[in-house]
Amino acid sequence: MINHLRFSLSSTRRFRNLNKSKKNRGLVVAQNGTVSTNLATEDDDDSGVDVIIVGAGVAGAALAHTLAKQGRRVHVIERDLFEQDRIVGELLQPGGYLKLIELGLQDCVKEIDAQRVLGYALFKDGKHTKLSYPLETFDSDVAGRSFHNGRFVQRMREKAASLSNVRLEQGTVTSLLEENGMIKGVQYRTKQGNELVRLHAPLTVVCDGCFSNLRRSLCKPKVDVPSSFVGLVLENCELPFTNHGHVVLGEPSPILLYPISSSEVRCLVDIPGQKLPPIANGEMAKYLKTEVAPQVPTEVREAFISVVDKGNIRTMPNRNMPADPVPTPGALLLGDAFNMRHPLTGGGMTVALSDIVVLRDLLRPVRNFNDKEALSKYIEAFYTLRKPVASTINTLAGALYKVFLASSDEARTEMREACFDYLSLGGVCSSGPIALLSGLNPSPLSLFLHFFAVAIYAVGRLMLPFPSIKSLELGARIISSASGIIFPIIKAEGVRQMFFPRTVAAIYRAPPPAQ
């Protein structure tokens, strides 16, 4: 474990003359959490900081390293620099790993006992099918990676803090500083000394995670909680398929299993809705042993029951929040503070890293961040240019979760069965969807076509050997049900931004990445 003081003390030495705090003059606290000044302030660049980053998770740490490599002076403020223990953010898809390579951060998956992931195994009603990532055209190192989230984040923080123009500080940001509709920086409380400090910079990036208390002034958050994960760590057991994630299409919803170290397997049990069996009185343990255990693969069932008996059970709500930014001069949203999707497909880190690549390339020609007008245009362009990749992964996660849910509706049941069988066909029927899921081919059009190919496949089976009134009626309900699943998600993502991003006014041309 990396001691959190190491970050703060070493970076403080490097930035000894960087943080010239201003006096708190004429503060007006708004209802949205921003802080306005009603008196004139000094020039913003007197702090010596180009970018303030709120949060040092995967997104914040990766962005700090990336912008610092461009020569920007970066100040990162993180609430807690100790190694965190989370039950999600543990699977990086191959598409995300490619972005990690592009950002020069691939060594962050080393020395943390990370496991290579080569695809998925899908289980349903005693049947199974293996779906391999289409990695044939890539270097042999390219694959998914699974790991303990906290170990990965600490490596990312260490990588960022190793750069002389990055200061990584532990503190709690209480508000954004606003003046005349523009974000000028942040107000935060230091961990050392518990002082209230105002820090200014031309650009503030908010990426303080799913519980962000700053996002309301920068977007229109519509957070939905469709389900919760119950997390367990199974020890010293072998999954049926080595180096693969496992998805059980269980009742009432999916069960996920994947390795997070050489001796541990993460198990995530999805429970729909927001009401969970209580852990304290033993109802959760009873539910897991009687309802879930019979559905997990026999190879891990004993380890599953053992960890339930030990009481090592954790829960976390699964949040969904479409990106709906309010472009604000001087500020930017990133990561789970900005955009969330159901974690079923493990796409969150891929979206965040892809966003950072887009932002890096957009900001490369901006020599002076104090050119507020130019900077604002590039920030607005970012919100559009990220859409094709992000919306593909978001839509797939939401649609696949709804398809994988058990239902009393016959049309939904047929769709679920058809999805499993379609993926089992092999060829493009499996390689196409798995390329979407892995982030290797984040194409909105491909997603749309494969989704309705599953629906048409489901209808086609009903027509054999001869169609009937009942099968025709059920077929129409399947198409209607499929439309009811995917179209609301696409609408929330934005049809134009998702399929026709170049019809949205923005700056689209940026220099090619440096070789």
From TrEMBL:
Residues 200-471 form the Squalene epoxidase domain. One of its GO terms (cellular component) is membrane. Pathway: Terpene metabolism; lanosterol biosynthesis; lanosterol from farnesyl diphosphate: step 2/3. GO terms for molecular function: flavin adenine dinucleotide binding; squalene monooxygenase activity. GO terms for biological process: response to hormone; sterol biosynthetic process. Its main location: membrane. It catalyses: squalene + reduced [NADPH--hemoprotein reductase] + O2 = (S)-2,3-epoxysqualene + oxidized [NADPH--hemoprotein reductase] + H2O + H(+). This is Squalene monooxygenase. It comes from Microthlaspi erraticum. The lineage of its organism: Eukaryota, Viridiplantae, Streptophyta, Embryophyta, Tracheophyta.
